[in-house]
Amino acid sequence: MERVAIIGASMTQFGQRDSWIRELLAEAGQACLDDAGVEGSEVDHLYVSNMASGEFEGQTGIANAVAHDLNAIPAYTARIDQTSSSGGAGVYSAWQSVASGASDLTMLVGGEKMTHRTTAEATDVIASLTHPAEYKHGVTLPSFAGLTARRYLHVHDAPRESLAKVAVKNHKNGVDNPHAQFQKEVDLETVMESPIIADPLRLYDFCPITDGSAALMLCPESVAKEYTDDYVTIAGIGGATDTHVVHERADPTVMGGVVDSGEDAYEMAGLGPDDIDMAELHDMFTILEFLQSEGLGFFEQGEGWKAVEEGVTDRDGELPINTSGGLKSKGHPLGASGVAQIYEVYQQLMGTAGPRQVEADTGLACNVGGFGNCVITTILEASQ
Amino acid sequence: MSDENQPAMEAARYPDGSILYPAHPVGPDGNEPVGTVDLSEYTATLITWTSSTATPPGVRQPNHLGIVEFDVEGEPVRAIGQLTTDEVEIGETVEAIYAEELREPGAGIREPESQAWDGYRFQPVE
């Protein structure tokens, strides 16, 4: 199986945008075509990561719409929906299309338009992924986070402030990301005194509702040099699921999909947690950064909070996590997030991350759908 | 606790002895259920809880929620549900209390006829 290269990448400004979903996807798509130096008509496969354009906006058939808007006809196209991990699932499909030999040039565009909806409406669209036994009780993704955070703090005797420090760290990183929704620091006191959303979690423990899009261009590594001198490769990728009913998991503080997808990605790459130089984790809620950093083997179970307290995951720490600002500060346009994670790792490995730049040859992205229901872990390496 | 005029809080029992709530077409061993258990006949232990203030359309605000664990003759069975109060602690014993309507059907995105809207809340045992 031939290794797959990423030869171009883009992302739009994340935040509250006037553009609708087609415009957002076309904006990132065209920027990616320009970055890779290819025409839309050259693309063999076009994947569009999007969770709910039909529910949010009343626009279905989005994959074909984007193909037309990017002049990518007659490319094969498909919409990839895996809730919050639609972007990561799109990366998986795009990688698969090239690695299998089915496509010589694959484009992935992920995006979501959400901010025209009220918080209650957007929360309900996302919560509709839950099992009927959960939905009828009014269970939402933020409430899963509150339930898990309380259990984590209780079992591991972790201080509440450790969660707040994830928000402080990621907001600090977001200051240097011109695409981030929030480019401002927050202090510990602000986080700890913000309104309760899902006790013990507060407003600043949650990512915002966001519009935005991101895109990648992939090809076999053997022909990457025909497009560009510098590129990154997908060294390993894994996708896994956990129970649909969240309370059935043996340990509420462990996401099996993170563990399983990570193991698959490490095995394919022939690497382990110690080989990773930087990571983008799905911090939709601050507690998720602990669960993923432990599930991926960066830290022992129950020790992830200590790494944040000790500055290990700071930009200048031993293992920088969420140099982009994460979903927390950058924003979380559902279908775009997993693609934008790869965009950040790509920038870091290419050495083009500007003031966010860290020393890295190998990076990892973990994109979580639902509350750990579906997870994609991807490991990238800089080209030799 | 259980009342014969109320629907059961029905969990499914599988051939390997495991019990799941809600019931699934197949259990952890890949086999179909062989029986049911009415969890409302048992008390449970509160594993964790939250009080959610950002609730979707048709849901009470705040919405107190908990994950509980029943002990059915030595077999642990977990469930999620609304709590009657946020005056609770992890490890507390709770009982299941029937509610005819947990949230307003049709107020949210899900088709009202696609699922049931009644169920059991949990309240601390006095």
From TrEMBL, chain A:
One of its GO terms (biological process) is isoprenoid biosynthetic process. Residues 4-222 form the Thiolase N-terminal domain. Gene3D superfamilies: 3.40.47.10. It comes from the Archaea. InterPro entries: Thiolase, Thiolase-like, Thiolase_C_2, Thiolase_N. Pfam families: Thiolase_C_1, Thiolase_N. The keyword Transit peptide does not apply. Keywords: Isoprene biosynthesis. Residues 238-381 form the Thiolase C-terminal domain. The keyword Protein biosynthesis does not apply. This is Thiolase family protein. It comes from Halohasta litorea.
From TrEMBL, chain B:
Residues 105-126 are annotated as: Disordered. SUPFAM superfamilies: Nucleic acid-binding proteins. It comes from the Archaea. This is Nucleic acid-binding protein. It comes from Halohasta litorea.
